[in-house]
């Protein structure tokens, strides 16, 4: 039922979108698109705010940080998620944020879409709150490759047109409010990681939401989620040393100085020894998570990424070996044959020389010249 309703809702919008996408001024349609934070001047925020459901009220996500859908699809995405799996809104929104950054970075539409669908499917498979949206995910993914093209092209165009860096809206650069003592290094991440602003803002937002929603798990689990979220960006961006450093710096401080404000307050009331123990526990736990996550995935990704280039390399090496071996063998054989020829030739000459040596001395010099010329060959 939901499936067909969504189909009915989405298909006309795809057609409308296609028509607008074919128009000559795609930038005027960017009312709530990926480029909103970069150029808020040529849009009309009050009108837009009226048009879209208040995601802050529905999911606790401010509209400027809502990342799912573009243009008309945004409204339907919000409604669908609200009706089907409202408790998974933050997770889905994070997938959308990563997808936005991928489009903005122009890292290949197919790659971005595949990653996005894997993200959605992962949550559907692992989180009971998201399981209801399994059909929605199955629906969206095939459509994405079709209508995502317009958004992808728009991203490229807006990137081209804004050669001079326009100031990014401050409220979209979110910092975890529960970790105020580490705001500065978080801002540093924004400065160091180009084209990752949506993802990083989403990590901060999800940390806030984690503290707000009552959960069975302890609050420090929110810090663990933040670590995972930031650590995970490594696999979703262009390799960047400065970005790696900024994130490592932040993670290090997070582990060293603790996560949420409630944790630190609680810790102040504890005895010194207990405090030390708790900090050590935290460090150990987080290190374990980091190694679990990064190490295993690093190794896996390295194997996957390098296997293609490695395969080519080993193939070339093998071919080179085969050819050079063949060459050596052929050369050796030809040399053998040549040497035998030369030996035979020399023997003939020697016989000739010995037989003719007694007669005329000049003929021996002639024959030696002959033999030397034949060896030169
Ligand atoms: C969101 O879902 C709630 C509960 O199902 C419903 O009352 C509300 O009208 C929905 N809002 C929108 C904008 O769809
Ligand atoms: C998904 O769709 C299938 C059939 O298309 C249906 O049987 C199933 O109940 C749906 N699941 C959800 C969670 O809506
Ligand atoms: C955008 O820039 C790229 C590379 O700089 C260029 O190949 C492409 O044609 C440009 N696109 C537009 C629409 O200007
Ligand atoms: C680390 O991985 C092991 C299995 O590989 C698992 O049992 C353990 O729970 C993981 N630790 C954490 C903190 O996720």
UniProtKB/TrEMBL annotation:
<keyword id="KW-1133">Transmembrane helix</keyword>
<protein>
    <submittedName>
        <fullName>Uncharacterized protein</fullName>
    </submittedName>
</protein>
<dbReference type="GO" id="GO:0004623">
    <property type="term" value="F:phospholipase A2 activity"/>
</dbReference>
<feature type="transmembrane region" description="Helical">
    <location>
        <begin position="310"/>
        <end position="334"/>
    </location>
</feature>
<dbReference type="GO" id="GO:0050482">
    <property type="term" value="P:arachidonate secretion"/>
</dbReference>
<dbReference type="GO" id="GO:0006644">
    <property type="term" value="P:phospholipid metabolic process"/>
</dbReference>
<keyword id="KW-0732">Signal</keyword>
<keyword id="KW-0472">Membrane</keyword>
<keyword id="KW-0812">Transmembrane</keyword>
<dbReference type="InterPro" id="IPR053322">
    <property type="entry name" value="PLA2-like"/>
</dbReference>
<feature type="signal peptide">
    <location>
        <begin position="1"/>
        <end position="18"/>
    </location>
</feature>
<dbReference type="InterPro" id="IPR036444">
    <property type="entry name" value="PLipase_A2_dom_sf"/>
</dbReference>
């Amino acid at each position: 039922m939901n499936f067909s309703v969504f189909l009915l809702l989405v298909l006309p919008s795809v057609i409308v979108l296609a028509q607008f996408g074919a128009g000559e001024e795609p930038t005027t349609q960017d009312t709530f698109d990926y480029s909103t934070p970069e150029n808020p001047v040529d849009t009309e925020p009050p009108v837009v705010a009226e048009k879209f459901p208040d995601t802050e009220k529905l999911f606790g996500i401010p509209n400027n940080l809502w990342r799912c859908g573009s243009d008309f699809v945004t409204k339907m995405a919000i409604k669908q998620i609200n009706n089907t799996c409202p408790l998974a809104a933050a997770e889905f929104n994070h997938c959308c944020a990563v997808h936005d950054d991928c489009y903005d970075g122009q890292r290949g539409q197919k790659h971005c879409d595949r990653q996005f669908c894997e993200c959605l499917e992962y949550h559907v498979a692992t989180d009971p709150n998201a399981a209801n949206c399994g059909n929605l995910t199955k629906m969206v993914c095939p459509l994405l490759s079709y209508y995502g093209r317009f958004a992808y092209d728009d991203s490229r165009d807006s990137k081209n047109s804004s050669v001079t860096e326009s100031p990014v809206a401050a409220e979209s650069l979110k910092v975890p409010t529960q970790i105020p003592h580490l705001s500065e290094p978080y801002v540093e991440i924004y400065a160091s990681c180009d084209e990752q602003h949506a993802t990083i803002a989403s990590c901060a937002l999800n940390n806030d939401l984690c503290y707000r929603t009552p959960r069975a798990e302890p609050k420090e689990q929110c810090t663990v989620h933040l670590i995972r979220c930031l650590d995970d960006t490594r696999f979703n961006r262009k390799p960047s040393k400065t970005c790696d450093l900024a994130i490592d710096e932040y993670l290090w401080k997070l582990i060293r100085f603790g996560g949420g404000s409630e944790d630190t307050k609680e810790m102040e009331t504890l005895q010194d020894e207990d405090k030390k123990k708790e900090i050590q526990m935290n460090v150990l736990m987080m290190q374990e998570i980091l190694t679990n996550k990064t190490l295993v995935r690093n190794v896996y990704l390295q194997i996957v990424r390098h296997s293609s280039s490695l395969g080519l390399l080993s193939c070339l090496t093998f071919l080179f070996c085969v050819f050079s071996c063949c060459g050596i063998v052929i050369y050796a054989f030809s040399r053998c044959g040549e040497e035998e020829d030369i030996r035979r030739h020399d023997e003939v000459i020697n016989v000739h020389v010995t037989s003719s040596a007694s007669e005329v001395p000049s003929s021996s010099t002639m024959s030696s010249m002959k033999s030397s010329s034949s060896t030169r060959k």
